[in-house]
Predict the structure.
Amino acid sequence: MAETLQSLARGFSVALQPAVLLYAFVGCVVGTLVGVLPGVGPLAGISLLLPATFGLTATNAIVMLAGIYYGAMYGGSTTSILMRIPGEAASVMTCIDGYAMARKGRAGAALAIAAIGSFIAGTGSVMALMLLAPPLANFALRFGPPEYFALLLLGLLVLAYMSGGSMVKSLAMAVLGLLLGMIGIDQMSGFFRFSYGVVELGDGLGVVPIAVGLFGIAEVLATAGQEVPPKVLKPKLRELLPSRQEWRESVMPIGRGTVLGFLIGIIPGSAHIISSFVSYAVERRLSRHPEEFGHGAVAGVAGPESANNSATSGAFVPMLALGVPSGPIPAVMLAALMVHGVSPGPLLIKQQPELFWGFIASMYVGNLMLLALNLPMVGIFVNVLRVPYSLLYPSIIMFCVVGVYAVNGSVVDVWIALIMGALGYILRKLGFETAPIVLGAILAPMIELALRQSLAMSDGQYAIFVSRPIAGTLLAVGAALVLLNLVSWMVRGFDWRKRIPLDEHGENL
Amino acid sequence: MLTTDRVGGSALCLLALFVIWESRTLPLGTWRNPGPGYFPVLLAALLLILGALACMMGGGAAPVTGVGWGEAGHALVILGLGAFICLALERLGYRLTMLSALLFLVWLVEKKSLLAAAAFAFGLAFGSFYLFDTLLRVSLPRGPFGI
Amino acid sequence: MTRLRLLLAFLALAAFIVLAAGYPAVAQEPYPSRPISLVVPFPPGGVADLTARPVAVAMEKVLKQPVGVVNKTGAAGAVGIQSVATSKPDGYTLLLALSSISIIPEADKLFGRPPAFTVDQFAPVALISADPTILVVRAESSWKTAKDFIEDAKKRPNQISYSSSGIYGTLHMAMELLSHAAGIKLRHVPYAGGGPALTALLGGHVDALASGPSVVLPQIKAGKLRALAGWGDKRVAALPEVPTFKELGYPEAEFYIWAGLFAPKGTPEPVLAKLREAARVAVADPEFKSAMDKLETPITFKQGAEFQKFFDADAHRLAEGVRKVGRVEQK
């Protein structure tokens, strides 16, 4: 422990150098910007600025790129809360309750809770990264296809808790999302599925066009033509900060979100986007007022926002401890290291302690910088709501188009977003939830690949799922959850039937 | 009676049937070795069941016409404009496309004054181009004469 | 009414501009007189991208015009490659492709779908690097030499598993070539990219991997992985004690993950000549050399007829390999 603190002190001496501070700041600002703009997410931001880092030292480069990554998680909540448009795919869940809070006049509170939750989660997860990196990384490596399959199956169960309306309709939307995820090249056999000759569909529809279309464009379509334009809210300064009640409601969700996000983040390959979905579902399940979710529940903002920040630190664990690219973003950062002659590998921490500890220390500093950047900006951002909607929505459309186009430089993505926007509009009118579609589209290719890889590994034996300890445990947990729910549903069913006659007799329960 | 649930449910059923039809070229594989067609067909079958359920249980939902489609006309105009943007983006270039699109929306659809609309459209189109293309180095398409 | 008229006028103007944009440019200036785009069909940070950037910088010095790297990703490279195949052959759009350029059209043929592009839509300019793949296994595994591995595979067909970056991808084809040359049958578990494939090997979920040397060298040096043999013509410089499959008696197991510069077919000959000359000077540039050193990717420069020969031989090998693999589902 003393050694860790000593190394950390050395790290701070590196991180607090003016040059390193500057690049961390640049990364955080760019990251916030990238997060605020709809569609363009941290991967696009990092990829675009990678060439700019070639002239810098290795430490400065990696500090800046990391700043973009976790900075985007801070910024992503802004447009989600203010305009119900996801700043990046991980902020989709914040759109639901965050926007509802904004409509109630609590936009400032929502933004503040998102910022502070992100800070606590970011700092907490960096501490975990610092202390637990090597042993956690080895554990994370043991996640192979069977474990992924079990984990993702649990993730599917999450869908059941995501929305409040009719179970049949939510499930139908989830299956629709799963089907949309089937478009593209089948990784196991090389077949092109449902792509109709459009080469760009080879990698699937893409989470960004789907999320921006279903939430951003659909929102504009539904609101723009209305007779009475949305009320222009003019919040007072006092109302910008969360009330004591709101603080109390966000403490536990932030804590849970931090832990959950970090754990999901360390698993190589898993989309850290899932962390915010899972956190939302967990909060809803554990909440004493589940009916608030969807109408401005504080936990629905605090949990997911903390989870997606914490997942970014988790993603660095396998990258730094083992030199293994655990996802597209760590892969780009590893490439940045390689270009600077730092060979990423299991010996990175030992061979380059300055780099590693400087990086960790700069993450603490970066989170502080982002908090300092984002909190005062709450007041500025909230003024966006004062712009008359007739001018606001054309700007929204423009930002959506740029954001979606910027990811791949492809007009096909913009078409997809447009079509998903039309779909989202119709579904809203018909009373179907759209969030399960996004989760389904993310999960489908991953679940299918994990299942078929597992069967390829075991040559067709399904026993592989129970013979491996981690996979078996996860599946058992999932089965237990399903059973519990069935039981409670049946029991509640009986209760419900009993309750009505009692009420009619005017008796209290 | 045409309720929202019934309309949605039947649309989903049709989509499910379409997917099953389109998957006919993909090998299904076996239980032990699922092929590319396995999951799509499975999911489509599930969607068919759920869509049918939504239809059957949907008698109590709101009637389709009663939902309020007042803004639908406006939405269609926006969608049409979106299609224009997609077609023109790589031919006219980003700035000209956005300029015309924003001008169209603010001047013609929202009926603001021409001067204000032009200023707004110009500022936003060129300003965002500067932000993205020059500062953030996202290469946005340029149109004729390099605009 | 006036508004409608104005709207129509505006639309007419827009239509005129669109038509004008489509009109072919009448450019008679010497090449190059505008910035050049180097299309990389893979995402930033990958092998292709990291090779392309130093190339772009070095060629910029020679051509005296900005050479910008444009990432057009998708479908294992097919999207970017197709975009260059259909672009104007005026020398301002170039492609940096990996060996997958030969594989994708074959795979398309196998599935009976119209190919996204064909190899003869390109005029090869120069080969920049040709990394031979190497066979790696975990350090704790019982195979100490390639011979051990192959003999064990013969004894237990379809029991030893290997990961790859994707079906019909470079890492898959390398293993397939070995399997056919040595007469063994291995179990293939495709992953979505080189990174996940390496992670799978490190985590013990598969037994072997064919990989480009630069990615696995740090793991080998740290003692986590062992290299058994290489698919190259010569031994890998950083691993002098690792034999090649050629030396071990399997000459058909030759495979390189190479990166080469291409231009669309129909690019005028003087432009091509200038590009070849620029490439030749670029790879001799000391800054370029040091950049490639940092990536642990040796420069293998071939040009003109030599590159064409190498490319044709490689394409032929890969096409054969793809045909032999056949459609996985029909097995």
Remarks:
- Chain B has two domains: 4-67, 72-146.
